[in-house]
Every structure is written in C-alpha cells, then in structure tokens.
Amino acid sequence: MTEFSILDDSMEWQKDFERRLRTSYTVAGLAAATVERMLEDARASIGDWTVAEITAAGTRVGYEAVVVTDDNGAFAGRIGDLHVDALHAGRGHEQAARDWAEAWCAQRGARRLDIRLTEPAGELFNGYGVRGQLRARRVSSPPEPLDGVTARPMTPAEYPEWLTSEKAAYVGDIVRAGALSPEEAVRKSDQDFAKLIPEGLATPGNTFLVLEAVGEQIGTGWLKHGHLPEVTYGYSLYIQDQHRGKGYGRAAMAAGEQATLAAGDSTLMFTVWGGNEVAMNLYTSAGYQVIEESRSIDLPRSAA
C-alpha cells in the first residue's frame, strides 16, 4: 500500500529535486549558466510547497510536492514534483501519488490541477491536457538561410499593426490551450505586453524582424536577448497563413537563430502552446528539445 507523510523538514527532498532538475536541463543541452539560473528560479518558487514522502511497507519510495494558489480569483493546484525512485517504479506508486495530489488539492478548493514535466511520465498524465511546451536548441553556427527569404528590422510605421496582431494571436493561443477564458486572456495579453516591451520598438535587448520573400512580407519575429544567461527567447516567429506550407517556418527559425548569435547568445528558446501540433512537429524535426511541458486537468476529475 502506498502512503504519504507530510515532511516538516524537506531539505533532503530539495537536494534530490535540484539534482534531478540539473540533470534534466543539462541532458537537454542547456549551458551551465542557463541551468544554474533556472535552478535559482525553481528554488524561489518552492517556499510554499507542501512536500510528502511516499512510502510503501515503511520504505521511502519517492517524493511528492503540491501547492494550491489563487490564480486570477480561482484556486488552482500544482504538482511541483512527483518522483518515484527507479527501484520502485512501475508498481502503482506513481498513480497513487497522482490521485493523492488530485484529492489533496481538490480538498483545498482547487478547480484545476497543473503539472510541469521535465522528464517523460509515460501514460500517467495522458488525461491531462497539454497547455504548452518550453523548447530550446543550442545554436553553434549560423544557420543556412532559405533561398529568397530575407529578414530586416521592423520599422516604426509597421510596429502598431504588428502589436495589435501579436496581442490577438497571444490571446488565441492562451484560449486554445485551455489556460484561461477569453476575457482573462485579453487582460493577461495587455499586462504581459506592457511589461515586456514598455518602450515598444525601442525597448532595449529586443529584436523585431520582418521576413520577406518574392517581394512581399511573409512574416515577423520578436526575440528577447539575455532572457537567461546565453539564451535568446523567441516570443514570436510568425509566418502569415497564406504563406505557410512553403518551408518558411524553417526560414523564420533560421532568422531567429541568426539574431541569437548576433546578440552573443548561444541558445534559442521559446514556448509553443498546446493544440499547435503542426508547430510542435516542426520544432521537433529542427532539433528543438522539450525542456518542460505544462499540463493540467479540471478538478474534481471526471469519472470518465
């Protein structure tokens, strides 16, 4: 029988948690400085987590960490960690831990349960919808540009229309992923853009691109340099609908990689929202690894 005991002292768990995160991020190809910054961010988030020791017949078999927070006026739960040691894996402890977390969070008023996976979880969370993936790839040399495609800086005259389009696309991504309602997504979009690019096109550390081919605009790009040590974050690499299916998606990625190297960074990182399988397949084929995958499920879980 799998049992759970809340720990008063979670130091041993934290050491094990950080060790596993470091290994996962390193295997994914992130630079050492990037890994350490991501670990710092992880440490800052675990202060309110409740950590339980998972045991079976008196033997510790793993750990679980959970928390419930107020998310835009509604309670949401999160599984911060769910780990069963390899020696005890595959004996039902993982499913018992998932079920315990769902019950623990629901009892505290959570109507949604999130988890951020950094390691493959098999079928354990198949019932949880994919909300997004953080992907990254080391860029060691300038990519080969696609013939006929050029990237140039966005002009002040082009910026307002781009901003309106980007904010609308961001809202659509959030809603399609099931993360927020349309009204909540609009508020988040307004807040995020105001925070990220308060000076618009002149905001330092950002690159805004226009992609052109066959004499016309085919897409745009927005990248933030130094997002993490040695990391450029691609907020948007967009190809217009009428120009898709022509290989321009790879051209946009090449432009992003060129901008990454030009800024002195060595890794291009971005988020792809759940429900966008076409983009996920493109990024996989281009060598962009999943660093983290966010999933969620409504609580209480449906009997089906």
From TrEMBL:
Pfam families: Acetyltransf_1. It is an enzyme of class 2 (transferase). InterPro entries: Acyl_CoA_acyltransferase, Bact_Acetyltransf, GNAT_dom. Keywords: Acyltransferase, Transferase. GO terms for molecular function: acyltransferase activity. Its EC number is 2.3.1.-. This is GNAT family N-acetyltransferase.
